[in-house]
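Hi there, hope your week has been kind to you so far. Do you reckon you could talk me through the fold, stretch by stretch? Thanks so much in advance, here it is.
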Amino acid sequence: MSTVISVQQPVFAFTSGETFEEYCQAQPTELADLLRRVFAGVRIEPDTQLYLATYPNWLTCVVIVEDQTPDTTMILPILVRIVETCPRMDLRILSTDMDLTAINEVVDEEIDLEDELNEVDLPLLLFFDEEWNQQAQWGPRPAAVEKRLDEWMAAHPAYEAFVNDDESEDSPLFDQLANELTHQMRFWYNDGLTAACVAEIRTLLENLESN
C-alpha cells in the first residue's frame, strides 16, 4: 500500500529550512563571513545566466548540508548564486542538526535521511516539481574536484581519520586540517571548479527540461 503524503508535509519541510542569510546568521561569525565572501566571488558566465533567467520549469530545491565542513563552505554559495539567477527556482537549506523527517517522506526511496544519514554524501541538492515529486538530485561536489580531493586526502590521512571519529572532531589538529582543506578548495574553485559545478547543474536542468 502506498503512503499518502499530505501536501503540508513537504511544504513544512521546505519552510522550516533556512535562506542563505538565515543559515549564515546561525554560523560562527568567522565562518559566516567566509560563506558570504565565497558567495560574493561566485561568477556565472553570461550564456548560463541567460539560460537560468529564462528557464521554463518551476522547481523547488532543498539542499541538505553538514555545518562547518569544507564542502559546505564552497558548494553552498555556488548553489545559492545559481538559484538566485533563476526566477523559477527557490531554495532552502536544511542542516543535519535539523529534523529531516518531513523531507525524508518525499525523497526517493533509496535515500533514508533518518536512519542512514551518516552514509549520505553531503551536500545533497534535491529538486522537486510543483507537486513535490522529486525530479533529480546532485551532490556532493562536481566530479572535476574528486581527483584533487583524493590526492589531498592521501597526503593528509589524519583528516579522514578525524572525519570518521566524531569525538576527535573537537581536536585542534582537526580544525587546522579542515581550515587548510577549505583554503585549498577556495584555490581549486577559483581555478575553474566553480565553472565546473555550474556546468553540472546546468546539464541537470537541461535534462529536466527535455523530459
Q: What stands out?
A: Residues 1-5 have pLDDT under 50 and may be disordered.
